[in-house]
Amino acid sequence: MDTSILNHPPEERREFSNGDFYSGEVKGLLPHGKGMYSWSDGTIYEGDWDQGKISGKGKLIWSSGAKYEGDFSGGYLHGIGTMTSPDQSVYSGAWRMNVRHGLGRKEYCNSDLYDGSWREGSQEGRGSYSWTNGNRYIGSWKKGGMCGRGVMRWGNGDLFDGFWLNGCRHGSGVYKFADGSLYFGTWSRGVKDGKGIYYPAGSKHPSLKKWCRSLEYDDTGKFVLSRSSSIDVDELRSLSLSAVNRSLSMRTSTSGMSDHPRELTSKSARSLGSGQSEGQDKKNRVAYEREYMQGVLIRESVVTSSVDRSLKIRPPSTLSKQVSARTFLTFLTGEHNYHLMLNLQLGIRYTVGKITPVPRRDVRASDFGKKARTVMFFPKDGSNFTPPHKSIDFSWKDYCPMVFRNLREMFKLDAAEYMMSICGDDGLTEICSPGKSGSIFYLSHDDRFVIKTLKKSELKVLLRMLPRYYKHVGDHENTLITKFFGVHRITLKWGKKVRFVVMGNMFCTELKIHRRYDLKGSSHGRFTEKIKIQEKTTLKDLDLAYEFHMDKLLREALFKQIYLDCAFLESLQIIDYSLLLGLHFRAPGQLNDILEPPNAMSDQESVSSVDVGVTQELSIPPKGLLLVTHEPNSVSTAPGPHIRGSTLRAFSVGEQEVDLILPGTARLRVQLGVNMPAQAHHKLDEDKEESATIELFEVYDVVVYMGIIDILQEYNTKKKVEHKCKSLQYDPMTISVTEPTIYSKRFVNFLHKVFPEEM
């Protein structure tokens, strides 16, 4: 311990009964001014005092050997100062109330260095961390871990630029190898998960500068892409092919496989044909579109110039359909769209805040009537009833407020959480419409709620069916039908009316949704053009290449509810609904000979530090999914935005309520349409034997999410039914609007093929 400060010339010396000692200036009975205080445990402070409290500049030495020199306030380390810990790590920077807070620099005992922003004692904000082995990360931090946009450069020359979560790569990014090869793709929890494109060293690839700009900030200061954003494979493919066409004119075969040691697996190499010579392979090598599942390569196709010519051929009608589908809302762009989202948040905050304090009561017939409306004008400067805001003047109409208030409570939705999710500072995100309706969709910042614009005809259907909908969801807590939380209308100052419905997001889950399908049980036009398929594209009936096998009791519960929901929709003469199906694939268990070698990216793909608390190692993923007896204390029992139903029972676990364990990932509660385990059996297509796409596996473990959507199209006249049946290739002569329609029968029959019964 440094004892030099004990030689302080005393102005006044006081020794206390507990062994503490003070020497210095006083004011009355309290230390004030310059002084030195020694505690009985050996801790010593020398510096400024203010009315008995340590304030100003000073030096504090603890008995453990730790030292601090800098600013104090009210007895706390507060301001700018330097702390030397017993292990000789040194922090210099801002402090608040005894914790590191603000800009600061810390050199660790192992010579690692962090320089950047701190919050409540942990790295948070923008910062740089340098390891002694030459690795360096520059980017965003949260709660002490790499989180958000950042760039990691390893000592061997490899580089990753993209998104991180809790110290792991998570979201979109580009990995550049030291030899010049590139992989543009998506990651989940540190491993490749989803689609991407790999460019071998020396091949043409998109501009990295353009890619980095696509991940940077937009004009509002927010990231253009979030950590959940997916790679635009089609754009990369087209950029790659345009580059290839400038330099290559020959035909590339499917045997052109990368020989990069970190990317090529022995089994996939054998699958793609070994008859070609190495020279021919390199000659044909261009780029490879790949799909990974928890780090395992499951599918690959070669991107060639010949494929490019075919992919660029588009039907003349495609553009006209896309344009006409969105014409009724084409004004919702740019500034208008921003005002619309802001108005929506203001209106919902007003609605929920007004109706929530009203004592709960049973709904009455009048609550569904035409007079069950709340109308309010929101001038920009505010009024006696509304706050001032930064948007434009608008009128707000809330439909059936008491009904939807009770529905939100029936769905076990907390009013404060509902408002914070939709009306919080993080705002709403516009997402692409998966259908032909032309509707615009917004997603809440926490992914729990989807807000969809409605046509006037859809609003009428919803309000007409609302009394029976209210009863159906009340009687059947496991219903797969979409949850509706509120219906509203905004009238802008120039008279334009925009109607909205707030719904639960069926795909709100911590797991990555690898495939999305909209299933109607029809084959007419129910496919997606290959050129339009991206990672988050919602595919259709003919695109579904799997059938799903699940536990006997889980399947029985599923079809029992499907029959009930279809009967309800039949009674409303609704025949054009869909099953929205989401699939999370788990990596196959037999991976020893095809998984990327665990030591292939040992240093460059892992981050570890005593202080940062980040450790990431590549290992063989665990096998399969595991159903276990339900334990309420081991899983989240909070109601989701889509399903509020009971925990399901499984035949394979003695007909007990069950949880789903994903080894190494999570333990989840199994409910109808949520976290349902199944095996996906790939249906082989003989017509695709010569395809450039290689499917490496035939059976996958999957987690299934589903719900019934598109229930606002009413067909209550013979003319409407005949028109719709013609588009679906049904026989209109077999359909009567006064009896259950054939639509539900074909819909259910199709689902029986998708989820076949075990023999």
UniProtKB/TrEMBL annotation:
Region span, Disordered: 250-286
Biased segments, Polar residues type: 266-278
EC number: 2.7.1.68
Alphabetical keyword list: ATP-binding, Kinase, Nucleotide-binding, Repeat, Transferase
Reactions performed catalytically: a 1,2-diacyl-sn-glycero-3-phospho-(1D-myo-inositol 4-phosphate) + ATP = a 1,2-diacyl-sn-glycero-3-phospho-(1D-myo-inositol-4,5-bisphosphate) + ADP + H(+)
Gene Ontology CC, one term: plasma membrane
BP term (GO), one: phosphatidylinositol phosphate biosynthetic process
Single Gene Ontology MF annotation: 1-phosphatidylinositol-4-phosphate 5-kinase activity
PIPK domain span: 334-755
Protein name as annotated: Phosphatidylinositol 4-phosphate 5-kinase
Species per Swiss-Prot/TrEMBL record: Brassica campestris (Field mustard)
